[in-house]
Automatic annotation (TrEMBL), chain A:
Lineage per the UniProt record: Bacteria, Bacillati, Actinomycetota, Actinomycetes, Pseudonocardiales
Pfam families: PP-binding
InterPro entries membership: ACP (IPR003231), ACP-like_sf (IPR036736), PP-bd_ACP (IPR009081)
Name used for this protein in its record: Acyl carrier protein
Cytoplasm in keyword set: yes
Intracellular or extracellular location(s): Cytoplasm
Pathway: Lipid metabolism; fatty acid biosynthesis
PROSITE patterns xrefs: CARRIER (PS50075)
Function field: Carrier of the growing fatty acid chain in fatty acid biosynthesis.
GO BP annotation list: lipid A biosynthetic process
From TrEMBL, chain B:
Family: Belongs to the thiolase-like superfamily. Beta-ketoacyl-ACP synthases family.
Family matches, as Pfam families: ketoacyl-synt, Ketoacyl-synt_C
EC number: 2.3.1.179
Species of origin: Streptoalloteichus hindustanus
Catalytic activity as recorded in UniProt: (9Z)-hexadecenoyl-[ACP] + malonyl-[ACP] + H(+) = 3-oxo-(11Z)-octadecenoyl-[ACP] + holo-[ACP] + CO2; a fatty acyl-[ACP] + malonyl-[ACP] + H(+) = a 3-oxoacyl-[ACP] + holo-[ACP] + CO2
The protein's annotated pathway: Lipid metabolism; fatty acid biosynthesis
Active site, per annotation: C168
Gene Ontology biological-process entries: fatty acid elongation
Chain ranges of the Ketosynthase family 3 (KS3) domain: 4-412
Annotated GO MF terms: 3-oxoacyl-[acyl-carrier-protein] synthase activity
Its job: Involved in the type II fatty acid elongation cycle. Catalyzes the elongation of a wide range of acyl-ACP by the addition of two carbons from malonyl-ACP to an acyl acceptor. Can efficiently catalyze the conversion of palmitoleoyl-ACP (cis-hexadec-9-enoyl-ACP) to cis-vaccenoyl-ACP (cis-octadec-11-enoyl-ACP), an essential step in the thermal regulation of fatty acid composition.
Protein name in UniProt: 3-oxoacyl-[acyl-carrier-protein] synthase 2
Assigned keywords, A-Z: Acyltransferase, Fatty acid biosynthesis, Fatty acid metabolism, Lipid biosynthesis, Lipid metabolism, Transferase
UniProt cross-references to InterPro entries, sorted A to Z: 3-oxoacyl-ACP_synth-2, Beta-ketoacyl_synthase, Ketoacyl_synth_AS, Ketoacyl_synth_C, Ketoacyl_synth_N, PKS_Beta-ketoAc_synthase_dom, Thiolase-like
Length: 79, 413
């Protein structure tokens, strides 16, 4: 799956879980600092991403996914 | 005329089986409409439940709240939020300019059961789909302080957020707690009341097994019949009611419109049985007497009692005895659960709103389905249609499993 398709799916998950406008969800944005996604919502986003992309996101990896771009690369590499 | 230390009510909010706000609910009560209807759910047959009726919300909270905030809340938290925002706006506090310091604002919202629906749904997910499907929001959605906590967050309350839990007295106990905070001068404004939403299989099964519920399934609107000789139990309802209470001095200084006064509160406990009321209503009478004493109200001036009366055979008669002994046989009595069903931890708060409005508007709503007054009641219970009556003071009763008794005394502004 190309990175732009991963980003598109991720935007939909972030909108569903945290109500963030998909326009705002761009690769350089930090989930916590820019998009106001809290730690509870990050867990939900990770579980939905695991289901959507067929990846495993262990907690120690989740902690490293600071930006939307980090998440896209992680999913692209590990799926 | 209120004095500086008085507690006044400046805002009202509710969402109930009769309407999505206070005005609609109050009008429906006055018109004698019932909020009870047939329950439709696949689990009724699956578990062969004997109860097939309930008083469900007139307006779904998800129609009012933003989608993302609603999905983070249990239904009991959603209804609290809906009612809190209405009360806040009704008090004229929702404008751009803050009128109360966050440190001088408290929230007290009680619930009887809390996020039972969340607990049951998440347990199902754990059993069927495993740990990773359990929501990280499970605990904040099921904790019984959740409704209070969400309202506190929304309004920016830093003066204290509390959640009394005393079964079906919780909502009234929250108002009593608010009154005490205001009288002690701890804060200037308190948003207080109760919230409940647990119309689902296990609570219905539990109440049914305790033989406390009406099984008049063929006539939903006639099932809740407090004080009637043919009553056979309560009807489960859902909803929320919240008030904005203020120190009179503070309300006057900001030019707030006042609905009335919460003049006095009384609480007591039966120490008798875990669910059954003390049959002579002695504990309830002590709560009523305390509310009148703290409110400086002579029992002969109490023109109206808004009864807890849930439509159970034992409870209604015990309460009637309490009213006769603490107030007398002169007050005009009504039992709003005949129309609203039993809102458990929200009941006391929603019915406190009705009590206050009765004083303000000089009218008492009818008790539905009162065809043959139980001869043991011996009170003037309004039946048929609403009754006009000039009121200076009225009392609202609330009692809960566990032997909790709360009485609230309201007077005109």
């Amino acid at each position: 799956m190309p990175n732009e398709d991963i980003l598109k799916e991720l935007k939909a998950i972030v909108e569903e879980v945290a109500g963030v406008d998909p326009e705002e969800v761009t690769e350089e944005k930090s989930f916590v600092d820019d998009l106001d996604v809290d730690s509870l919502s990050m867990v939900e986003i990770a579980v939905q991403a695991e289901d959507k992309f067929g990846v495993k996101i262990p907690d120690d990896q989740l902690a490293n996914l600071k930006t939307v771009g980090d998440a896209v690369s992680y999913i692209a590499t590990n799926k | 005329m209120s004095t500086a230390n008085d507690v006044v009510v400046t805002g009202l909010g509710a969402t109930t089986p009769l309407g999505g706000d206070v005005t609609t609910t109050w009008q429906a009560l006055l018109d004698g409409r019932s909020g009870v209807g047939r329950l439709e759910a696949d689990w009724l047959d699956r578990f062969d439940l004997p109860v097939r009726i309930a008083a469900q919300l007139a307006v779904e909270p998800t129609e009012v709240l933003a989608r993302v905030e609603a999905r983070r809340m249990d239904r009991c938290e959603q209804v609290a939020m809906v009612a809190a925002r209405q009360a806040w706006a009704d008090a004229g506090l929702a404008g751009e300019e803050p009128q109360v310091e966050p440190e001088r604002l408290a929230v007290v919202v009680g619930t009887g059961i809390g996020g039972a629906m969340t607990m049951l749904q998440q347990d199902d997910l754990l059993e069927t789909a495993g740990l990773r499907k359990v929501s990280p929001l499970t605990v904040p959605m099921l904790m019984p302080n959740g409704p209070a906590a969400w309202v506190g967050l929304d309004l920016g309350s830093r003066g204290g957020v509390h959640a009394p839990v005393s079964a079906c007295a919780s909502g009234a106990e929250a108002l009593a707690w608010a009154w005490r905070m205001l009288r002690a001068g701890e804060v200037d404004v308190v948003v207080a009341g109760g919230a409940e939403a647990c119309i689902t299989a296990l609570p219905l099964a539990g109440f049914a097994q305790a033989r406390t519920m009406s099984t008049r399934n063929d006539e939903p609107e006639r099932a809740s019949r407090p004080f009637d000789a043919a009553r056979d139990g309560f009807v489960l309802g859902e909803g929320a009611g919240l008030m904005v209470l203020e120190r009179a001095e503070f309300a006057r200084a900001r030019g707030a419109r006042v609905h009335g006064r919460l003049a006095g509160v009384g609480t007591s406990a039966d120490a008798y049985h875990i669910t059954g009321p003390e049959p002579e209503g002695k504990g309830a009478a002590r709560a009523i007497a305390a509310a009148l004493r703290t409110g400086g109200i002579d029992p002969k001036d109490v023109g109206h009692v808004n009864a807890h009366a849930t439509s159970t055979p034992v409870g209604d008669v015990a309460e009637a005895a309490a009213i006769r002994s603490a107030v007398g046989d002169h007050p005009v009595v009504t039992a709003p659960k005949s129309a609203l069903g039993h809102l458990l931890g929200a009941a006391g708060a929603v019915e406190a709103i009705a009590t206050l409005l009765a004083v303000r508007d000089g009218v008492v709503p009818p008790t539905l389905n009162l065809e043959n007054l139980d001869p043991a009641v011996r009170l003037d219970v309004v039946a048929g249609e609403a009754r006009r009556v000039e009121l200076t003071a009225a009392v609202n009763d609330s009692f809960g499993f566990g032997g909790h008794n709360v009485a609230l005394a309201f007077t005109s502004a």
